[in-house]
Amino acid sequence: MKDNIALNDIVDKTFKILKEVPLCDRCLGRIYSTYGAGLSNKLRGISIKVLLTMLIPYMINKLSSEEIKRIAANIKFQPFYVTLQKLNIQLDIVEKPCYICGDILDSIIEEYTRIILKECLNYEFNNFLVGVHIPSEIATKEEELMRIFKIESYESIKNEIKREIGKKIKERLKLQPEFQEPDIVFLVNLVENRLDIIVKPLFISGRYIKLGRKISQVEWLILEKEGYRLKYDLSVEKSLQPIAEIFNAQNVVLHAAGREDVDARMLGYGRPMIIELKNPKFRKLLKQRLLEAEKKVARESNGYVHVFLYGKASRNKVREVKEQAKYHAKTYKVLAISDVKVSEEELKRIENVFSNKVVSQRTPTRVLHRRPDILREKKVYKVVAKRICENLFELLVKCEGGLYVKELVDGDFGRTHPSFSSTINKNLKCIELDVLNVSM
Ligand SMILES: [Zn+2]
Fold this sequence. Notes:
The chain has about 450 residues and is an alpha+beta fold. It is built from 16 helices and 16 strands.
């Protein structure tokens, strides 16, 4: 009987470890985390200490007095001392703090659970994740101990803190932890002794309409002697910022399906977009919030920018929307002027030539300074022209996404071919451009 017990791996190994280092209940329990299910490490640790206490009378003869003294100082368990006293072993025991955690594990779990539950009141989320940053000296101590005693059944201290706090949060809030894409991460930062909160951005799909000209899509900064200055006072992205207040977010980033020129209006049903709210404390897409956001954008941009917000989108949708923009058919309204009179027949010729016509286009001269010079082939599906007066006319142009329409009109010194100018051999110029439709 005695021999069998002495051979028991757990007992043997624990005595060996406790001869060397003091361990609290949790840190001892973690060493045997794979033994038994439905147990906390604390209960495991206490159970092993109970077992050792029960067995010590039968093992006392196999241990030297020096070994007993060391084990007693390291086991941190009152009944063990009482049992030794009963065996007439009088020891002057000075309990030492746990070698791995320094006896702070219980208070860390309690304290951070309390802080997290308090912080939760400020955020809306459907799932969460608890993360832990532990000081490297703790991790190193733990790993070394496990390596020296060849222990493979252990759970890391980091994991235990995560799991224990996560379990308490889950019970209190009746919410599930989410490991892939949590709405919120509570990062217990034990290196800096603080709680960091990381909130997943909120993506909302929608469209925007731009009713004015000289409005850039995002802020356009130009460098001057005094520093940077905005080239245009208003941008679509800037006019979206009031949405941040509604969701108590840090700011709003616009991800649009392509972009129109600064001086072109974006009309019709608008341009598809995904807006990204950074660090939103509120993330429920209540109808009332979306309506308020739409109103706010219109009001604060003085009616120049309008948005339609549809609902929640995923992060992947951002790339999809941007990618699709290259293939969307677009319809434009062009107001063009000629330096000489243009006849009805000439306009008919433009309509006929540009019916399902592939146009080859080198990067326009006006954007060459910021885009690589490449040759692209884009299709013009249909053109409808209407004369306003002798040298002024309007053209509705339906074409493939990515075609530069201003250059389709003037030819850009032959870099776009054929062009409306080259077709009738006259100098035409686009003086106003509107995007009427972006198909999805
Ligand atoms: Zn400990």
